[in-house]
Write a structure and sequence with these properties.
The protein has 158 residues and is mainly α. It is built from six helices and no strands. The longest helix has 38 residues.
C-alpha cells in the first residue's frame, strides 16, 4: 500500500501546476503576438513595392530602419541597466529587423524583382524563429520546473 501511495504522490508532483502553465501560456502569447506584428510589418513592406513610388519607398525604408535601430538600442540599454534578458532578446530581434529593413533598401534600388521574393522569405524566416523560440521557452520552463521538483539537492545538503 505504501508503494502505491508513493507512486501516486510522485505522479501528482510531476503534474505541472496552474501557475507554471500560465507562465508557459504567457510566453507563447508573447511569441505569437510578436510574430503577428512582424508578419504584418512584412506584409506592409510587400504592399509598399506595389503601391508606392520607388523613391518614396526607399525613403520609407530608411526611416523604418533607423527607427527600429533606435528602438533596439533603447531596449538594449534598458536591458543592460536593469540586467534583464527579456529586453536583451527583444532588442536583438528588433535590431535584426532593422538590419533586414536596411538590406531591403538595396533590393528596391538594384534588384526590384527580387524584392517581391525576399520580403516573404524574410517574413517566413522570422516567424520560424518565433515558433522555435516558443518551443524552446516551453521546454526550458518545463525542465526548470522538473529540476526544482527533485529533492536531491536537499538530500545532498543534509
Amino acid at each position: 500500500m505504501e508503494e502505491k501511495e508513493i507512486i501516486r504522490q510522485m505522479e501528482e508532483k510531476r503534474k505541472i501546476p496552474l501557475e507554471v502553465k500560465n507562465e508557459i501560456m504567457n510566453k507563447i502569447c508573447d511569441c505569437v503576438l510578436s510574430a503577428i506584428i512582424v508578419y504584418t510589418y512584412f506584409i506592409f513592406l510587400n504592399l509598399g513595392i506595389r503601391n508606392i513610388h520607388q523613391d518614396v519607398l526607399v525613403m520609407d525604408l530608411k526611416v523604418f530602419s533607423v527607427s527600429l535601430a533606435v528602438i533596439a538600442i533603447m531596449l538594449l540599454e534598458i536591458a543592460y541597466s536593469k540586467k534583464e534578458t527579456k529586453n536583451l532578446y527583444r532588442g536583438i530581434e528588433i535590431l535584426g529587423l532593422a538590419i533586414i529593413t536596411m538590406l531591403l533598401q538595396y533590393f528596391v534600388l538594384y534588384l526590384t524583382p527580387k524584392y517581391r521574393i525576399m520580403v516573404p522569405i524574410f517574413a517566413v524566416i522570422y516567424n520560424v524563429y518565433f515558433v522555435l523560440k516558443a518551443l524552446f521557452l516551453i521546454y526550458k520552463t518545463k525542465s526548470n520546473y522538473m529540476k526544482n521538483l527533485s529533492d536531491i539537492k536537499q538530500i545532498i545538503t543534509k
